[in-house]
């Protein structure tokens, strides 16, 4: 299992624009609440946003704060397993999808492996990530970049609407 004795506050980005993303978000939250390596879960408000660098229906987005007892790779595997369980089939980058569960932050760690990059490399460029993240943690920091709030002005042209 490779658990640590301490919890790490992690942030996950949820997104989806096919089928019933709101119901899938509920399932993701519930799955993390029941996960043996998760000691607590909190979800931000949900937002609607237009696709970035793609076409298709608007997305529903939110951020989860998860108190995680495992390591970053175990968190990634939990996310990928949930996506598959809930019908995600990976095709092309930015393709429409029913659910996406991205690892955004793992405490103050930086991770750069073949399967995982933390902090998420584009999170500071996406208002649909920054808005919900800052609702959960107004002083959130992106390791190596600074306070998340400082990136909001550059995303003013991206419209996100609370739902």
From TrEMBL:
SUPFAM superfamilies the UniProt entry points to: 6-hydroxymethyl-7,8-dihydropterin pyrophosphokinase, HPPK (SSF55083)
Domain 7,8-dihydro-6-hydroxymethylpterin-pyrophosphokinase stretches: 93-104
Pathway stated in the Swiss-Prot or TrEMBL entry: Cofactor biosynthesis; tetrahydrofolate biosynthesis; 2-amino-4-hydroxy-6-hydroxymethyl-7,8-dihydropteridine diphosphate from 7,8-dihydroneopterin triphosphate: step 4/4
The keyword Transferase is annotated on this UniProt entry: yes
Enzyme Commission (EC) number: 2.7.6.3
UniProt cross-references to PROSITE patterns, sorted A to Z: HPPK
Family of the protein in this entry: Belongs to the HPPK family.
Protein purpose: Catalyzes the transfer of pyrophosphate from adenosine triphosphate (ATP) to 6-hydroxymethyl-7,8-dihydropterin, an enzymatic step in folate biosynthesis pathway.
Protein name: 2-amino-4-hydroxy-6-hydroxymethyldihydropteridine pyrophosphokinase
Species name: Limnobacter parvus
Protein's gene: folK
